[in-house]
Write a structure and sequence with these properties.
Helix content: 25-40%
Number of helices: 5
Protein name: GNAT family N-acetyltransferase
Oligomer: single chain
Order of helices and strands: EHHEEHEHEHEE
CATH architecture: 3-Layer(aba) Sandwich
Radius of gyration: 15 Å
Strand content: 25-35%
Strand order of the largest sheet: 1-2-3-4
Distance between the termini: 21 Å
Structural class: alpha+beta
Bound molecules: coenzyme A
């Protein structure tokens, strides 16, 4: 790993305060949805959210309405600041068929520093280690920053679909 690379860390109890501050930073910038956060934007209690994301990492305990999912905070080594969040859904159900295996967000004040690109690059390694042969990712076409993150990591355009009235594109990453 290169020096100054962010590190993907699974959420734990000790991260509670920094995680809540991270969420607040999104809300204070007017973002109600935190992509890739596995409902951290909707479940008020950190402890409840932590229990849910931890259960969802294992086939034996995953919510029957969801798929096995790993969730990571992107942590900057220098100051341990959470700079982003990203998830990996190990399979696609009917709901995820278009939405794909992964979502991500970077803290609003930390954007355009290369963290989004680094996070996806590292997640592709995690997906490979988890045995996925291909990762599918969807993005609204006008989300230039996210399209660039995908392109920086070698995503290949596959198809388009409409989501909530917007055009979105599906990209694939071969992991073999
Ligand atoms: C998408 C997102 C994760 C990108 O994170 P980031 O840390 O800023 O990404 P990077 O710094 O790696 O930037 C990637 C590229 O996008 C460009 N970029 C970043 N923000 C941009 C913007 N607002 N407009 C145009 N280009 C932008 C960067 O300059 C960089 O370009 P380059 O590869 O040509 O150098 C971040 O903007 C975000 O959290 N957005 C809200 C959530 C979201 O949209 N998630 C994705 C859902 S699919």
């Amino acid at each position: 790993m290169k020096k100054d690379e962010i590190v993907l860390k699974r959420p734990v109890s000790a991260m509670k305060e920094s995680a809540l501050a991270y969420r607040k930073a999104h809300f204070e910038s007017g973002e109600k949805t935190i992509y890739g956060s596995e409902l951290f934007d909707q479940i008020e209690s950190y402890d409840e959210w932590l229990k849910a994301v931890t259960r969802n990492t294992k086939p034996e305990t995953v919510d029957p309405n969801w798929v096995v999912t790993d969730t990571f905070f992107a942590v900057r080594p220098g100051d341990q600041e959470i700079v982003g969040i990203i998830d990996l859904r190990h399979s696609l159900n009917g709901f995820l068929k278009d939405l794909g295996h992964c979502g991500y967000s970077v803290r609003p004040s930390e954007r355009r520093k290369g963290y989004g690109t680094q996070m996806l690059r590292q997640l592709l390694d995690v997906a490979k280690e988890a045995g996925l042969q291909k990762l599918q990712l969807s993005v609204e076409r006008d989300n230039t920053a996210s399209v660039r993150v995908i392109q920086n990591n070698g995503g290949v355009y596959e198809r388009s679909f409409s989501f909530e009235g917007k055009e979105a594109d599906v990209y694939g990453f071969l992991l073999k």
